[in-house]
Amino acid sequence: MDVRRIAILTDTGTNTPRPFITAHDVREVALRINLSDGSSLRSGTDITSEQMTALLAKEIPTTSLPSPDEIRAALEQVRADGYEGAIFVSIAAGLSATNQTVRLIAGQMSGFPVAVIDTRSIGIAAGMVTIAAVEMAEAGIPFEEMVSALDRLSRDTRVFFSTKTLEYLRKGGRISEAVYRLGSFLRINPVITCDRGGRYTVARRVRGWERSLDMEVSLVLEHAQELGRPVRLAICCSEGNDHFDELERKLREGLAERGVELAGEVLRSGVSPDLLVHTGPDLVGMGIQPHWECFR
Q1: What does pTM read for this prediction?
Q2: I want to staple 287 with a disulfide (CB 3.0 to 4.6 A). Which of 125, 179, 196, 199 is the partner?
């Protein structure tokens, strides 16, 4: 196989930045947003993040995975476009059936190797795995080596995020009623992460929005020190929550104090419409991962 002809695909839940997707021919399959009137919209195509934020003031939709036909069409298209294999990077299998569905369809692609990567994460942290996959493909890393490295990279990639209210996470079934009631009663803004199985879990419980953001920084720096190697960082903020400069400054200062090297720039991203459904309009999150060259 010509390793330079490996297509990279992902779903909208990874929040891979649009300029990167366009510049590197990443093929994106949209998660669905289902409204109370029976209509179904493709995240990022039929509805923008800004429109989703406005809609949340009226109703809280549900989400669903892309249709099998859409996934199959995307894989068939990259084959038709001359790619000789594909890697599909998905949000955590513990949070969505997208990964399992892609695996089933990939198994039906005769003569066209497709590997499916479970990032065990969501949002920008999963997007960081997508970006790493693109960089590996463009660097000419062999297919099998890419798959192995991306799986290990996913295990060490972490996401931490906070929301101003737990209402959306509760209604979407992402947190338990007990966590919701405790948080609401005590005015706690927990920092959420994904466990090793790719399911939401509380990383820390803190009282107050600003303290939760500081705790995110602390958790990222703690993980960076545990990794003990060059790291990549990302910050995501929903519309109206522009904390990018402040948080990047704190992260850079913290890495310098701990003697941890920052590989490249700090990635910045918004929040996709499908993720806003489950988190609400006020979200700030961070992603951290070791640089993929550490796994070669």
Answers
A1: 0.93
A2: 125
